[in-house]
């Protein structure tokens, strides 16, 4: 679905960022702006500013910034399309769908109406369950016995479905309403089970169970989980699949955990509703749970919208190890170099709820700190059942490791694991790659290594191309990033979804070789034209030709690139919206989406100046991003220095940035 930029601008012109943010953050007037506690990181004194004049928010503590659309994407975990539709609905606008047939448009409208109706039905049932809880001593006793307070029950909307086959008949005037069946609240009997009046039998799905409402990232009730109070089976019962609920895509507690995920820095994935609620009661509100199903790729992708680190918690028994193995398969494609995935195995006699009650918050936090990294667990999974003291066992491990390793995205982690696998199976890394990828490795037998490393230096030869493939290219090391504008701040006027920064003269620089090294740093040419040598253009070229690389960047790098002056910042912002809307697209599709973009011609020029056969060099891009991060942090430190003497939070942030810069320097960034 393509949404015209003109509509985005009209939408943002009507939307009030103060109103949108104010629904999630308590704001107070402070001069020309509104101030509040930042929802993206934990703080005790307000550093989160919302400007009604500029329709822009900015946190002086963590640097998060943007407009109404980006706030819904960052805080509520919506995709670009979801955020636009949500805002449009709030302000009575119809999202243009010019590329959709009238039939498809009618079906989509019917689906949206149905979904809205079903969530309202579920919300009404949820309120009834809350009311029934107040009158049920045994349900209250159960929750109190699990150590839950009334406040945490209110936060999660806990309730009780009373005994009786048709208690919802007192909630809904028409118990025969088809919506009750479509929403999963009521079950109809099979043919032949009609009552005396010839009507199909209908009865409540949830009876005599404590109820856990399942909410989507917008906070709408989309289903329920119910735990039996007696000995009936099943112990836990979920809503069935409906137009608004899919257990393979939803996570219990994610809506409630949004802020805590950023405060704790990671998501803790558990296996039960009570684990989530009990952990939130005891200081770990960053917990979520799968809904009676194995962890899926959709679950993992949704979590990485909110955090760069995920810890899966499982029982230490065989069932827990099998569940962890499925989670590993789901997580591997998303394990980029800037993300962390770990696996926590609790003692067999414990679940997260019981462990934290026995060992306390500090004990549980310490145990989480010992979680197994994805790399180690992947090697353990590959070696399971293999006797590494025999050639047969090592060959078996190599065979097991191949599909797992192939799921990883390209990057430093993937290359390191290749070396570790080769070491464990006692095979040279080049031979292992030739076994795994014979077609691509065979013709490179004369090269130093079969596994291509774009960052490794390549010597030029005048002979056969076996040693130097024609599509290999080593870009020159980037020149010093001099002249970066000192006045680049986040307090910028967002006229539309794409920020339009006035380009400082310092950013309009051309390629200039270092003195004393001009001979080896001659500008590259294509079709007689000089290729721009700016760092921003190099990053832009890679992301336009390999947009999936965006997922390898950290959240801080996303913000940094999007905040660059035009043309780069608006293009990076646009590219991110395309990824949210469509996923990675080839350049041909991106080219069509760029039509009418203010910086369309700059993007086209960058692609046209890439010589045939030249590959993007991720190692070079990584160095550029590190330099941009360093300079961005230095700029923030300048701003913080003016407030550090009187603002303890500013001082603390200044020290954190200073420490991070020191670490970057030690690592050669």
From TrEMBL:
Annotated CDD domains: TOPRIM_DnaG_primases
Annotated ranges, domain Toprim: 265-347
PROSITE patterns given in the database record: TOPRIM (PS50880)
InterPro entries listed in its UniProt record: DNA_helicase_N/primase_C (IPR016136), DNA_primase_core_N_sf (IPR037068), DNA_primase_DnaB-bd (IPR019475), DNA_primase_DnaG (IPR006295), DNA_primase_Znf_CHC2 (IPR036977), DnaG_bac (IPR030846), DNAG_N (IPR013264), DnaG_primase (IPR050219)
Co-factor binding details: Binds 1 zinc ion per monomer.
Group of enzyme by EC: transferase
Cofactors (names): Zn(2+)
Keyword vocabulary terms for this entry: DNA replication, DNA-binding, DNA-directed RNA polymerase, Magnesium, Metal-binding, Nucleotidyltransferase, Primosome, Transcription, Transferase, Zinc, Zinc-finger
ZnF bounds (CHC2-type): 38-62
Disordered as annotated region, ranges: 440-530
Bias kind Polar residues: ranges: 462-474
Compositional bias segments (type: Low complexity): 440-456
E.C. no: 2.7.7.101
UniProt cross-references to Pfam families, sorted A to Z: DnaB_bind, DNAG_N, Toprim_2, Zn_ribbon_DnaG
Reactions that this protein is recorded to catalyse: ssDNA + n NTP = ssDNA/pppN(pN)n-1 hybrid + (n-1) diphosphate
PANTHER family per UniProt: DNA PRIMASE
Function according to Swiss-Prot or TrEMBL: RNA polymerase that catalyzes the synthesis of short RNA molecules used as primers for DNA polymerase during DNA replication.
Complex and partners: Monomer. Interacts with DnaB.
Free-text note regarding domains: Contains an N-terminal zinc-binding domain, a central core domain that contains the primase activity, and a C-terminal DnaB-binding domain.
Family designation: Belongs to the DnaG primase family.
HAMAP family: DNA_primase_DnaG (MF_00974)
Annotated protein name in UniProt: DNA primase
Species of provenance: Polaromonas aquatica
């Amino acid at each position: 679905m393509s949404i015209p930029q003109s509509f985005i601008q009209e939408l943002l012109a009507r939307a009030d960022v103060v109103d949108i943010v104010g629904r999630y953050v308590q704001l107070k007037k402070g001069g020309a702006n509104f101030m509040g506690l930042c929802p993206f990181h934990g703080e005790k004194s307000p550093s989160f500013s919302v400007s009604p004049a500029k329709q822009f928010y900015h946190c002086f503590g963590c640097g998060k910034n943007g407009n109404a659309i980006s706030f819904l994407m960052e805080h509520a975990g919506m995709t670009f399309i979801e955020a636009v539709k949500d805002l449009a609905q709030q302000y009575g606008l119809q999202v243009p769908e010019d590329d959709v047939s009238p039939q498809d448009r009618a079906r989509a409208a019917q689906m949206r109406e149905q979904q809205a109706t079903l969530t309202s039905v579920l919300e009404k049932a949820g309120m009834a369950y809350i009311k029934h809880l107040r009158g049920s001593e045994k349900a209250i006793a159960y929750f109190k016995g699990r150590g839950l307070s009334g406040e945490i029950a209110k936060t999660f909307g806990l309730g009780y479905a009373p005994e009786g086959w048709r208690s919802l008949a007192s909630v809904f005037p028409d118990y025969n309403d088809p919506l009750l069946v479509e929403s999963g609240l009521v079950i109809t009997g099979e043919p032949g089970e009609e009552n005396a009046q010839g009507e199909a039998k209908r009865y409540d799905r949830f009876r005599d169970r404590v109820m856990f409402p399942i909410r989507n990232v917008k906070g709408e009730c989309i289903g329920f989980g119910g735990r039996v109070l007696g000995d009936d089976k099943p112990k836990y019962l979920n809503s069935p699949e409906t137009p608004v609920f899919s257990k393979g895509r939803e996570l219990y507690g994610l809506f409630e955990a949004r802020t805590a995920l950023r405060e704790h820095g990671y998501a803790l994935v558990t296996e039960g509703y009570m684990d989530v609620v009990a952990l939130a009661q005891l200081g770990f509100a960053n917990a979520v749970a799968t809904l009676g199903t194995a962890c899926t790729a959709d679950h993992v992708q949704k979590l990485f919208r909110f955090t760069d680190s995920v810890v899966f918690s499982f029982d230490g028994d065989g069932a827990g190890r099998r569940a962890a193995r499925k989670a590993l398969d789901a997580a591997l494609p998303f394990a980029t170099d800037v993300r962390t995935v770990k696996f926590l195995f609790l003692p067999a006699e414990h679940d997260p709820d019981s462990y934290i009650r026995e060992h306390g918050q500090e004990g549980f936090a310490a145990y989480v700190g010992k979680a197994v990294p994805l790399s180690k667990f992947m090697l353990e999974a590959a070696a399971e059942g293999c006797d590494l003291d025999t050639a047969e066992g090592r060959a078996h491990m190599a065979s097991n490791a191949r599909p797992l390793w192939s799921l990883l995205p390209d990057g430093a982690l993937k290359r390191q694991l290749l070396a570790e696998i080769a070491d464990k199976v006692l095979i040279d890394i080049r031979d292992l790659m030739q076994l795994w990828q014979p077609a691509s490795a065979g013709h490179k037998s004369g090269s130093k290594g079969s596994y291509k490393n774009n960052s490794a230096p390549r010597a030029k030869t005048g002979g056969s191309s076996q040693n130097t493939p024609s599509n290999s290219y080593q870009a020159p090391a980037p020149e010093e990033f001099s002249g970066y504008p000192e006045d680049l701040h986040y307090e910028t006027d967002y006229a539309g979804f794409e920020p339009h920064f006035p380009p400082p003269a310092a950013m309009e620089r051309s390629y200039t070789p270092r003195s004393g090294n001009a001979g080896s740093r001659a500008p590259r040419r294509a079709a007689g034209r000089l290729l721009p040598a700016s760092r921003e253009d190099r990053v832009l070229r890679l992301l336009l030709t390999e947009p999936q690389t965006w997922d390898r960047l950290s959240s801080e790098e996303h913000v940094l690139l999007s905040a660059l002056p035009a043309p780069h910042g608006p293009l990076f912002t646009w590219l991110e919206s395309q990824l949210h809307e469509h996923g990675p697209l080839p350049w041909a599709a991106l080219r069509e989406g760029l039509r009418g973009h203010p910086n369309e011609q700059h993007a086209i020029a960058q692609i046209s100046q890439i010589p045939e056969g030249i590959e993007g060099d991720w190692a070079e891009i990584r160095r550029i991003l590190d330099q941009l991060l360093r300079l961005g942090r230095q700029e923030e430190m300048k701003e913080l220095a003016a407030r550090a003497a009187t603002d303890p939070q500013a001082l603390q942030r200044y020290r954190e940035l200073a420490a991070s810069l020191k670490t970057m320097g030690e690592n050669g960034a």
